[in-house]
Design brief:
The chain is mainly beta. It is built from 2 helices and 34 strands. A hairpin with a 5-residue loop joins strand 1 and strand 2. It is globular. About 7% of the residues have low confidence.
Length: 383
């Protein structure tokens, strides 16, 4: 285990801090805003890194933090232990439709850009880039919603959920790409990592995870089921950094590890062009469910489930280097293109260029004919 990976593992053992309500919310030099009550929640507009840091740290249930356009360069990790509630979450978002980038270039080596150890936050329409380590880490969080964010070109995994008590979090329409941990030669930097913890009800949907040094998605040492749907994972594990000791695994979906037996669920998602397997159990012997997915042109297996009790149904595999599937005797396989009597439908397009296009105005994945077949019964619909 690398030092950075060990750091995330150790943080999950840290006792959570319960912050009591304060009388005022301090925002930079001399600026104060009355804290919200249940009847009145503060809306705070920030335009510099100091005010952003203070607003995040001192938020209370119902606070709305709006960040004006620009690129912000914090000099310390932005972090909070302040809880929202299900009825009054804390909101952190861009102001209107403005473009906001939070850049980690001025942080000390090994720092994260944003660490949240709190419940019921809604974070949206922000880019976290150039982090020395992981860009965003949500530790032992419950009920957070992340929508239309980007975690790019960081020094470890782009986005991480970790810790016991990680429950009912939704990661929607995230782009996470270009993440590379130079100190470990790409061994740890995933697009999205749900690692070292437990908690049910976590959902990743509409994600686009690509060109990361290690895996697109990694569920190493997470002991509760996670659901993934409508997600693309591609181009991971390719040595784009001219690292002579490159160690990235390059799986599209790494669904286990460290002895955990977990029934993760992957629906209507795709993996292509990864240096490893498209979808792999990674030693997880649990009853993983893989349904209506597509694996195309991965360097190893499209689907690798040698020891698990996986349930593979209505999946489409074409063109992966080691073959369509490696499955053990405990696997249930039905309606997949490798099963007897199942035809492999033709793709409308194998040109992946449109997969890089801008998302729709609502944040959903770009429209594409890439890897679509028109079938209503097999393979990812690519939306």
């Amino acid at each position: 285990m690398s030092r950075r990976t060990a750091r995330i593992a150790s943080t999950v053992r840290t006792a959570r801090i319960v912050r009591t309500a304060l009388a005022t919310l301090s925002l930079g030099a001399g600026l104060a805003v009355a804290l919200p009550t249940q009847a009145h929640a503060a809306t705070v507009v920030v335009s510099n890194s100091t005010d952003l840091s203070n607003a995040i740290k001192n938020a209370t249930a119902g606070t709305v933090i709006q960040v004006r356009a620009g690129t912000y360069y914090p000099t310390a990790t932005l972090q909070s232990t302040a809880n929202g509630t299900s009825a009054a979450p804390v909101t952190l978002t861009a102001y209107g439709s403005e473009t906001v980038k939070i850049d980690g270039s001025s942080l000390p080596d090994g720092d994260w850009i944003f660490k949240l150890t709190a419940d019921y936050w809604n974070v949206s329409n922000l880019t976290f880039q150039n982090s020395p380590d992981s860009a965003v880490v949500c530790q032992s969080c419950t009920g957070t919603v992340w929508n239309n964010i980007k975690t790019i070109n960081g020094g470890d995994s782009g986005f991480t959920l970790t810790g016991d008590g990680t429950m009912n979090n939704t990661v929607r329409n995230i782009d996470s790409y270009g993440n590379y941990d130079a100190a470990n030669h790409g061994e740890n930097a995933d697009g999205v990592a749900v690692k070292f913890g437990s908690g049910t009800g976590n959902l990743i949907t509409g994600a686009r995870l690509y060109n990361n040094a290690d895996d697109g998605i990694d569920f190493w040492s997470f002991s509760s089921p996670v659901t993934v749907e409508h997600t693309w994972s591609f181009g991971n594990g390719v040595n784009r950094w001219s690292d002579s000791a490159f160690a990235g695994d390059g799986n599209g979906y790494k669904l286990g590890g460290d002895g955990e037996v977990v029934a993760h669920v992957i629906n209507n998602s795709a993996a292509w062009g990864n240096a490893g397997n498209g979808f792999t159990e990674n030693s997880n012997t649990g009853a993983i469910v893989i349904n209506r997915t597509t694996a195309y042109a991965n360097s190893k297996w499209g689907y690798y489930f040698a020891t698990s009790s996986a349930k593979l149904g209505k999946n489409l595999a074409v063109g992966s280097g080691s073959g369509a599937v490696s499955k053990g005797s405990k696997v249930t396989s039905a309606g997949n293109t490798w099963d007897s009597g199942i035809a492999t439908p033709a793709f409308r397009s194998t040109d992946a260029s449109s997969a890089y296009n801008a998302r729709s105005s609502s944040g959903t994945l770009p429209a594409t004919t890439f890897l679509t077949t028109g079938s209503t019964t097999i393979g990812a619909t690519m939306d």
